[in-house]
Design goal:
By secondary structure, the protein is of the alpha/beta class. 39% of the residues lie in helices and 14% in strands. The strands form three sheets. Strands 4-3-5-6 form a four-stranded parallel sheet, sandwiched between helices. A four-stranded parallel sheet has the order 8-7-9-10. A two-stranded antiparallel ribbon has the order 1-2. A hairpin with a 5-residue loop joins strand 1 and strand 2.
C-alpha cells in the first residue's frame, strides 16, 4: 500500500501520479515547489508568487491569494491545489474542490512545522529525497541560530504588519515562532486575534525593546522608520526595518530566513 500523508486540515492524501498538475495559491509554497524540483508540474500561481522570478514569470497567474479567476483555473486544468488556512478563504478552497481539484491544505504555526511541510509536499509529488535534503539544511540552519542565541539577551518585540490601522502579530503566529528562536518574544495584547489592531503610542512602545517594521504585507520602508523616530524620539533607537519574507515565509525560504535572522539578531545584540 502506498504511504499516505495528512495535510493541515486532517485530510489524508496518497502520492500523486507523475502527471500531477499543480496550482499554487501561496507564494512561499510556489517557491518551495521549484526549490524541491517540482517546478515543471506547476501550471498556475498567484500574482504574489514572485520567487524564483525567472521561472514563475513563465507560469500563468490566476489572480490574488484571496480571489482568483476560476475560468482561468478551469482552462489550466490543475489536478492539485496548494492552499493555506490563513491565506486562502474557505469558500475559495471549496470552489476548487467543486472543480474536481484535490486541495492540499497547509498551516505552519511553528518554525519546526517546516519539516512536516517539506515531507508532505515531497512525499505527495515524488520528491522525497529532495525533501529530506532540504530538511537537513533546515535543521543545520536552526541549530546554528539556536547556538548563537544562547549568548543573546531576551527582548520584547513589537512587530508591525500594517498601517492605518496599525496591526501587529500575536504569539500564536508563525512569525512569532521564528522570532522566538532569537530570544525575541512578541508582547501580549488583550485581543485574541492572531493579527490584532493596535494603538501605536508611548504606553505600548515603552513595553518593548524593539519595534520591527516589516516589509510586507504593508511595504514599510526607511521613511516610516524616520517618521517613527520623529514621533517617538525617546524610542527611536528601537525601530528596525526587517525583511518580512525572511521571517514570515515558510517552506524553502525558511532556511534562508533562519540564516538571515541569525545575522540580523547578532548585529542587534552585539
Amino acid at each position: 500500500m502506498a504511504k499516505s500523508y495528512f495535510d493541515d486540515a486532517g485530510k489524508i492524501h496518497v502520492p500523486a501520479p507523475p502527471s500531477a498538475r499543480i496550482l499554487s495559491l501561496v507564494p512561499s509554497l510556489t517557491e518551495l515547489l521549484f526549490d524541491i524540483g517540482l517546478g515543471a508540474q506547476v501550471v498556475g500561481r498567484t500574482n504574489f508568487c514572485v520567487h524564483p522570478a525567472a521561472a514563475v514569470s513563465e507560469i500563468p497567474s490566476v489572480g490574488g491569494t484571496k480571489r482568483i479567476d476560476l475560468e482561468k483555473v478551469y482552462e489550466l486544468n490543475p489536478s492539485y491545489a496548494l492552499v493555506n488556512i490563513d491565506e486562502t478563504p474557505k469558500t475559495l478552497a471549496q470552489e476548487l474542490k467543486d472543480l474536481g481539484i484535490e486541495v492540499i491544505v497547509t498551516h505552519p504555526i511553528s518554525v519546526t512545522d517546516n519539516r512536516k511541510l517539506f515531507r508532505l509536499v515531497g512525499g505527495l509529488f515524488g520528491a522525497l529525497p529532495a525533501a529530506e535534503k532540504m530538511t537537513d539544511a533546515f535543521d543545520t540552519a536552526l541549530a546554528n541560530l539556536r547556538g548563537r542565541a544562547k549568548s543573546w539577551s531576551k527582548r520584547r518585540i513589537l512587530y508591525l504588519i500594517w498601517q492605518k490601522p496599525w496591526m501587529s502579530i500575536s504569539a500564536e503566529t508563525y512569525i512569532a515562532s521564528v522570532l522566538a528562536e532569537a530570544n525575541w518574544k512578541v508582547i501580549n495584547y488583550p485581543s485574541k486575534k492572531r493579527y490584532p489592531k493596535i494603538t501605536l503610542d508611548d504606553t505600548l512602545i515603552e513595553q518593548v525593546d524593539l519595534v520591527l517594521f516589516s516589509t510586507e504585507p504593508f511595504p514599510f520602508t526607511k521613511k516610516h522608520i524616520d517618521r517613527f523616530r520623529q514621533d517617538f524620539p525617546d524610542h527611536g533607537h528601537k525601530a528596525k526595518l526587517i525583511d518580512a519574507e525572511m521571517v514570515s515565509w515558510y517552506g524553502s525560504r525558511a532556511i534562508t530566513g533562519l540564516r538571515f535572522l541569525t545575522e540580523f539578531a547578532d548585529g542587534i545584540s552585539s
